[in-house]
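Q: Is it fine to ask for two folds in a single conversation?
A: Yes, each is treated on its own. Send the first.
Q: Here.
A: Result:
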Amino acid sequence: MTDMAAALIDGEGRLVEADPRIAALNASAGGGIGQPLALPAIAELARLSRRLGIVIARPAVVADGEDDVELWIRARPQPDGIRVEVSGWRDRAPEPSPAPRDAHRFDAAEAQFFWKSDAAMLVTALSGEGFDAAAAIGQPLTRLFDLTTDEALLPLLSAAAARGSFADQPARIAADGRAIRLSGRAQVDGGGFFAGFVGTGRFVNAAPAEPVVEATPAFGEQFADRLDRALRTPLQRIVAHADSIGAQADGPVRPEYVEYAQDISSAARHLMGLVDDLVDLSAIERPDFAIASETIDLADVTRRAAGLLAVRAANAEVRIDRPAMDDVLPAIGEFRRALQILVNLIGNAVRYSPRGGVVWLRLDGEAGHASVTVADQGRGIAHEDQARIFDKFGRVDASEPGGNGLGLYIARRLARAMGGDVTVESEPGQGARFTLTLPEG
């Protein structure tokens, strides 16, 4: 005898019919035939399947009275609604009590909206006045909330790595810029792995205060290692699967699903970049941080950095004017770190250049120093902002997509650790010129 049970959910999320086992589970949650499905995990999957027009299957945990049941749910669109097939039906062991460090709790009385995400940081539930929940389901969390400003992503990553929580995190609604405060708690699956967030939010009128972050060793070596292990492999898998779907490697898919996969890949790559930066940050801020000293060819490093960004520049219709192949510029430093700095500087120049623009890379060697200048045709940087961009999490325009405010901070710290520096010259409307200087080789 099979343990599979089925149900039909209409386009409004109402339960049309159900096998006895699902009907009883739904009734224990307060639902009934003809009413909205009262089992959030199944309802969310049905909404996502209906919106994308594809079959979706995944595990879920559903409350059954005072107990939890682990299920395997498969949702399939059909003309009269979404057919849901449920199997597995395994009682779940009760979760251990929260560790003492998980001190944050949500005050539902103050919450103005509720949200949930899965392990890939995709929205799985959203409720509250003023939100289009149907449009938000399945979108990256960073598409719903602007989490790219200041230290906005750090509390989420810290909570994910530590299986903890965060509270009153400043953010903005991406669609209209309204200021909000987010709180969230990491969820774990049956294997103890990060499974997403459940959280609340409220709107604010005043300028946000500093984020309240869980008391963990935020930039210690242990934290960096844990963050790297917890997020890098899952994010790499997300990127690989999303890129495969976007490239239609397994056959044609609907155009909107290709776009959806591309959004997932982009969001995951952004998070991977932030993980890389946080790991670097933890390294350069350790008291014992040191960089190898060796003779390098700064001209060769510059050409390699430009080559790594050639595809991005071509997609942006920006030309990189790199040094000639026979140019040589000896310097003292560490090849890998010099390359990292130049990739950051050239990548920024490409990002802020107009279509059809040119990024110039110029070499210079004099007075015991070797230098590379990266010049772009962007809108330039005001004098009052030129010091701030080198601060930790410092950004000129926090509303711009991409970036996290760590790149230039890390680049300058690395350059100074090699006995050099990163400086900027710019005038509004006249582009920017960033120069990496190292001791002459």
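Q: Second one now.
A: Result:
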Amino acid sequence: MRIAELSQKAGVPVPTIKYYLREGLLPSGELTSPNQARYDDRHVQRLRLVRVLLDVGRLPIATIRDLLTKLDEPDPDVHEVLGKALPATVGTREGGDPAVLTAAHDRVSALIAQRGWLLSDDARTRHAAAEVIAAFQQVGADAEYLLEHYADAAERIAVHDLGFVARESDNESKVHAAVVGAVLGNSLLAALRRMAQEHESAKMFGIREDNCQAAEAD
């Protein structure tokens, strides 16, 4: 297909496709003349993946390029690619009391050791968790009530996250599932959590009829 048809199928404007080609986010098509190229369904799928990573995952172009480079390797390392996808979705914060942050790092290290989690010492996620715990302390809240419960839930979710990846038969498909699952899974989990919070709030604190309409019984 020509670039115009590729644009129509993928729902991405032609100038944007050309930008992705320049940035290395989309493989070049098969040249049919000095200024014409032919594309196929793999380009359609890649464009849709790039849009998901940009629009839903909010990942930087450089991070997406790195992920896609790994995805295109002949025998991609699933664990490595998942590690590159996940930290990019975890925010970090600057500043704060160094003593509080040190104590938070110690608490995270204790949690990791207690649960036998296999993490590198410089994993960005462990630093991000420590920064959040420190932020709890700095606003006068105690994260301890939530920490173990959240860790329990995180373990169960991670099992299903990786089960989603392991269903695929080859490494390339596994890496694709890992990237998509890491980005869209976070968004889905956030939405489901908010829905469950609204439900629990209605049960715990009561509900006004003008603020929420219960689903009709079948």
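Q: Anything structural to flag on that second result?
A: Two points. Residues 77-204 form one domain. Strands lie at 30-33, 36-38.
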